[in-house]
């Protein structure tokens, strides 16, 4: 196993992710671990330690110090950015403020013949030196190597960008190998954990399932856990995992606000309750949501109502579950980062996002968040390893307020029914139409696709008669992070088929349009 010590960098979890990608088990702990803790890790098979970067300077009194015992375990240590500086400082080198902060892309010359960087480079200079394309972010730098260390890498403005004491297996890099902008980063970290630390690289998702199950059992003991199941990937995977760990000690509450997709409630119930035997309480709160939303047209007001009602229904249901001590949530790592960002108050609220996660503290329950350290694609792999259907695990994201923000203006049951049908036709055709070049379906080639109901009437002709009905807009986007997105270049044939099916099959709709706006300036959802 590899131990990652966290000194507060925004990207520490990425180190864990890369180590997992190298097929090696790792654990992430705060940077000020005790000597006893390190010794215990040794008995558990500790093979190496990675020290993360930090948002603080090595001089900052608030910055965590690296415990000296880290260097006394007889295992290799890799310091990244702050981790390297702390290593240098503790082992007798020197760290100073750099003249200028270096931030972003840099080219590093890999020097010396160290095991860590040997034969790893992105290109060679005319005189044959290997160059790595890396990502840097630092204000301090190592200015004198500690005894026993040799220079491993340098840039024009950072003469000591990498150092190594190969006898002791100590390495430091000023750049960040864990971010993808460092092109050979995965290669470097894999070499460290597999070759230098000697880990096997045969750890995988099924192993993770076992470890996660053990952790959940230790955490909750005999207590009862409740979980708000939404049918989305994260809460579904969390439910499947926790159920595997503690069986009937888990009760899921599935609130149907009447704004779900076609057959979604039945699918959730059949997957979880029928096939997996999970306790799921299905609350059909359609009437309650519809009456609260009646006549409300403002998008933010609608979002707030849906969020508030959701909490109310969930609370009422969970109060009925005797001796529940834990509230489980499908929080994943990007949510953790996002809410940390939100706390700094720097982000402007464009839309108030409502999640099953937004439950109040008054529930008096302890939080169980077994997916907290995973990224979305890892959550999906975990879902597959747990036996969830791929159609559920690889589903496009669906917003908490559901069709409530896809029916523009006032929401009612009739509009919701029409929209559900139109949306199902669109998704159906996307799944069944394959792109010749890639062989993938258009569902897989888009990140999110859905229909939007526009409360606008237009004139049409059907058979011999005049129609005067509503409009549906189709939205399909491609994005990797949902922060920016482009509209998907869907084939005309596909659009034609979807349009004709919707107009013929869905009552109340006589016109279909395609949304060709990117984000920004538009957002993905219309409200
Ligand atoms: P926008 O419309 O802001 O959406 O470009 C970005 C992504 O977030 C989803 N979304 C939500 N997800 N609760 C959610 O869980 C919400 O209130 C919410 N609003 C938007 C949206 O579907 C897209 O994937």
What does this protein look like?
- The protein has helices at residues 12-21, 35-43, 82-90, 185-196, 205-220, 233-246, 264-275, 286-293, 299-319, 333-343, 376-385, 390-393, 413-432, 442-445, 492-505, and strands at residues 2-6, 26-30, 48-51, 77-80, 94-110, 123-124, 130-144, 150-154, 162-165, 170-173, 224-228, 250-256, 279-284, 324-328, 366-368, 448-462, 465-478, 486-487, 509-514.
- The chain has 527 residues and is an alpha/beta fold.
- It has a 10-stranded mixed sheet with strand order 2-1-3-4-10-9-8-5-7-6, with helices on both faces. Strands 13-12-11-14-15 form a 5-stranded parallel sheet, sandwiched between helices.
- The chain folds into 3 domains: 2-196, 3-Layer(aba) Sandwich (Rossmann fold); 205-393, 3-Layer(aba) Sandwich (Rossmann fold); 406-514, GMP Synthetase, Chain A, domain 3 (2-Layer Sandwich).
- The protein has 15 helices and 19 strands.
- Xanthosine-5'-monophosphate (XMP) is lined by residues 351, 353-355, 397, 399-401, 448, 482, 519, 523-525.
């Amino acid at each position: 196993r590899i131990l990652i010590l966290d000194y507060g960098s925004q990207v520490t979890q990425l180190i864990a992710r890369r180590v997992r990608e190298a097929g090696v088990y790792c654990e992430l702990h705060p940077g000020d671990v005790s000597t006893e803790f390190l010794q215990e890790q040794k008995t558990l098979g500790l093979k190496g330690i990675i020290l993360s970067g930090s948002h603080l300077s090595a001089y900052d009194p608030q910055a965590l110090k690296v415990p000296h015992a880290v260097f006394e375990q007889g295992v290799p240590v890799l310091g990244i950015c702050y981790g390297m500086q702390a290593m240098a400082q503790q082992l007798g080198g020197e760290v100073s403020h750099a003249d200028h902060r270096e931030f972003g892309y840099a080219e590093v010359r890999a020097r010396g013949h160290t095991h860590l960087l040997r034969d790893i480079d992105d290109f060679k200079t005319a005189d044959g030196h290997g160059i790595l394309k890396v990502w840097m972010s630092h204000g301090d730098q190592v200015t004198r190597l500690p005894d026993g260390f040799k220079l491993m890498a340098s840039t024009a403005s950072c003469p000591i960008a990498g150092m190594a004491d190969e006898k002791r297996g100590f390495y430091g890099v000023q750049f960040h190998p864990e971010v993808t902008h460092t092109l050979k980063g995965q290669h470097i970290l894999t070499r460290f954990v597999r070759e230098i630390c000697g880990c096997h690289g045969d750890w995988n998702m099924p192993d993770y399932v076992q470890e996660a199950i053990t952790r959940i059992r230790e955490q909750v003991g005999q207590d009862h856990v409740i979980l708000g199941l939404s049918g989305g990937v994260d809460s579904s995977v969390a439910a499947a995992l926790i159920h595997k760990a503690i069986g009937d000690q888990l009760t899921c509450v599935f609130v149907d606000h009447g704004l779900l997709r076609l057959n979604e409630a039945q699918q959730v119930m059949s997957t979880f309750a029928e096939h997996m035997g999970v306790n799921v309480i299905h609350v059909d709160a359609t009437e309650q949501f519809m009456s609260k939303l009646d006549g409300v047209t403002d998008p933010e007001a609608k979002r707030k109502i849906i969020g508030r009602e959701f909490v109310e229904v969930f609370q009422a249901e969970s109060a009925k579950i005797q001796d529940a001590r834990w509230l489980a949530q499908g929080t994943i790592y990007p949510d953790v980062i996002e809410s940390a960002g939100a706390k700094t108050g720097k982000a402007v609220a464009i839309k108030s996002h409502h999640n099953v996660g937004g439950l109040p503290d008054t529930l008096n329950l302890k939080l169980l968040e077994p997916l907290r350290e995973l990224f979305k694609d890892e959550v999906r792999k975990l879902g597959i390893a747990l036996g969830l259907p791929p159609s559920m695990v690889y589903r496009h994201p669906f917003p908490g307020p559901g069709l409530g923000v896809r029916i523009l203006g006032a929401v009612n049951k009739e509009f919701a029914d029409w929209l559900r049908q139109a949306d199902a036709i669109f998704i159906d055709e996307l799944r069944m139409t394959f792109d010749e070049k890639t062989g993938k379906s258009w569902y897989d080639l888009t990140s999110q696709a859905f229909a939007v109901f526009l409360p606008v009437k237009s004139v049409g002709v059907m058979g011999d008669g005049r129609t005067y009905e509503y409009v549906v807009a189709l939205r399909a986007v491609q994005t990797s992070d949902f922060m920016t997105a482009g509209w998907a270049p869907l084939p005309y044939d596909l659009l034609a088929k979807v349009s004709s099916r919707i107009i013929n099959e869905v009552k109340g709709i006589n016109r279909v349009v395609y949304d060709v706006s990117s984000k920004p300036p538009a957002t993905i959802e219309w409200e």
